[in-house]
Amino acid sequence: MKAAGSDLSAVTSTGLIGWCRWAGYQAVGFVLAVPIAIELLFKLITKPRSTLYRKDRNTVVFPDPLPDLTHEWIEAAPGIKLHAVRTSKGSGKPLMLMVHGFPEAWFSWRHQMAAFRDEYEVVAIEMRGYGESSRPQGRAAYRLPSLVADVTAVAQQLLEESGQEQLVLAGHDWGAYVCWCTAAASPHLLSKLAILCVPYPLCFFPNMDWDQFCRSWYIFAFQMPWLPEWYCSAGDYAMLEAVLARPPTGCTTPGAVTPEYVERYKQAFGRPGTPTALINYYRSLIDLASRYKAPALDRALRGRRLQVPTLVMWGEKDHALGQQLLRGTEKYVDSLRVEVLAGCSHWAQQDRPAEVNKLLADFLRH
């Protein structure tokens, strides 16, 4: 069988204009990174011990959130193995593949795995660079086409193993971005597509107004070397708890991300090389929006309307991505259903699990 994504992963240079655009993005990132550098310097001067502190969680063993889960590693590309957690391997049930976002892990889908395990074999993976998956070196390893090729390869292997022809694909945040692209490039693999809190890829930059630019400041600041890693790791990865569990960005439901799960996220984020790998997602995103292009992936996104029935769920109180990014989605998707979750944050599947599960179940039945 031809390697999944072998053509999809190809990128080409955009030439001088693209490099000039890239330099402009770097300049914006530098300006936005200055306050971060000042804040870090102030903390290092006033609270050096707490700022530099990193708790060692390497020996901590957290129990699985559900019983009878199977952990395995699926080879998605040469030298790249993705950690996959399955609810009922070999059961013959229809497959549901779930892909997390930044800065999450497979267990961000714990509520959905519990809700759908009776009807589906639910498989939650950790993308390259995350958790217990492989962490290749260099920003080029985290280009979007390679991420899409990973998910495509996993989907193909799961389908071949089970003898099934299609599966349900669900993604949140970065996982949703990758799932959009996977659906566009390989629609024949999917029966349904569920997207949480991320627009169709071709709708992001055209809908980038001032409001969204302010929300997306971190994307540009993350272009700087080493500083984003320090920012995300300072104070024993305090950023994780702030982003996931505290206002204004965190879950709006009290206790949605408990202290135990904050610890789980910190353990996953704190693995050697992980902060750089995860920040490289954003560096490669800007690379692909400026100095490089992915012709095969671009053709897949632009060349035909997506035929896979698609459910998009969006948090009304999403602090990272505004609903204006949904404008124009109907131009690219034939069968589209959009649901806005009242009062919900960006972390929809953890913040409003009952609502997400109900909407997803209804979508899958029809």
From TrEMBL:
Domain AB hydrolase-1 stretches: 94-352
Pfam families in UniProt: Abhydrolase_1
Alphabetical UniProt keywords: Hydrolase, Membrane, Transmembrane, Transmembrane helix
One Gene Ontology term of the molecular function aspect: hydrolase activity
Transmembrane segments: 23-45
Gene3D superfamilies, A to Z: alpha/beta hydrolase
Family: Belongs to the AB hydrolase superfamily. Epoxide hydrolase family.
PANTHER family named in the record: EPOXIDE HYDROLASE
Entry protein name: AB hydrolase-1 domain-containing protein
Organism this protein belongs to: Chlorella vulgaris (Green alga)
